[in-house]
Fold this sequence. Notes:
By secondary structure, this protein is mainly alpha-helical.
Amino acid sequence: MACLKDPSYLILMNGRIQGEIRGKKGLRHGAPISPLLFVLAMEYCTRMLCQASLDKRFRFHPKCKPLKRVNLCFADDLVIFCKGVSSSVQIMRDGFTEFCLASGLSANMKKSQVYFGGLDDRETHQLLERLRFTEGCFPLKYLGVPLRTTKWKAGDCAIIITKIQQKLHTWASRHLSFAGRAQLVNSVLLSIRSFWMSIFMLPKSVTKEIDRLCRNFLWGVKDSNSNRSKLHFTAWNQVCLPKCMGGLGFKECCTWNTVLLAKFVWAVSSKQDILWDVSWYWRRLVRLRTVFSANSLAEALKNDKLCLKVLYHRLLNRERVAFANVVWCSLVVPKHRFILWQATLGHLLTRDKLHYCNLDLPSLLCPVCELEQESHAHLFFVCPFSQQIRAQMVD
Ligand SMILES: [Zn+2]
C-alpha cells in the first residue's frame, strides 16, 4: 500500500485553476487543537508551582494558606499568590522560570503586573527590583472583571454602561422596527450585563441605568434629532416577562441576577470544589439561600445541571398567558408578531388612548371608515373594513 504524502489542493475558480496550496503537518496559530494543548501546558505550570511551594522556606499568601493554593489560571490569564517576602517570591519565580524553559512559553512583561498588600515602601521596592514587573493598583482585573475584597461599587461597573452606550451609538435605531430593536436589546445589550451578573450582584443604580438605556432604545427618546415618540403603554415590568407570561422575553435584571448566582448556592450545597474565601461575597450567598430552598434547587436540576430558566420562572411567580403561542408563532413575520403582542395587551397607540393622554387630535374617528371612535375593539372587530378582510380570509 502506498503511503499518502505531500498532498496539495488546487483552487478552481470560474472553470480555471487559480492557485495551489500545499498540505503540511504541524500546528499553526489558531488551530482548533491549540487551546486544548495550551490547557495541558498550563496544567503542567500549576503542577510546577505546587511542586515549588513544597519548599520549606515557602510561605503561602495568608488567604490561600488553608487551601494551599498558589495560582489561579484561566486560559492564558495566570495569577500567582504568595506571601510578600523575598524567599517566597523567589521560589515562585524559580518555579515559573523552570516552566518557561521547559515549555518555551514566557510571560508578556508588558501585560504582567505585581500587586502588593500590607507591605511598606522599602519591602515593595526590594521586591519590585527582584521581579522587574511594574506595580499594579487595586482593583485588579481578572478576565475583564475587577476583583476587590469589598462589595462592588457603582463606579466599578461603569464599564458595562459604557459598553452599552457604545453599542447604542453605532446602531442606527431610526431605521429599525420595534421587533428589530427588541431583538437587539435582548441578544446584545442584555447579554453584556449577563457576564457580570453571573459573577456578582450588580448595584441597584447600575441595573436601573441599564434598564433605562434599553427602554429608551426600544421605545425611542423624544429629542431634536429624532422624531420617534417616547409614548408607549407597556410598562417595563411587563416587557421584562417571559413570552409565555405575556412579556417580550427580556430578563428582569434583579431577579435574573439572583437566579444566575443560584448556581453558586447550588455548588455550595452540593459541596463542589470552588474557592470560597471572600467574606462579603459569602455572606451574600448565604442570604440567597433563603430565596432558593433545597427543594426548589432539586426541582430545577436536569441531568445534574441546574436549569436557570425553571428557577427564574418560579421566582417571577406569574400566571402563564393563553395567547403566547398564537402571538409568538414562528411562521408570523417578526414585525407583525410585535404588533399582535401590543394589540393583545391593548397597548397600541389608538386614537381613543391618545385622547385619554390629552393629546391634541384633529379627529377621534377611525381613519379607515370614519364611522366610530378608533379603539382596539373597533379596529380589529367592528370596523367594516377589517370585517371585509376577515371575510375574504375565511373564503
Ligand atoms: Zn373603522
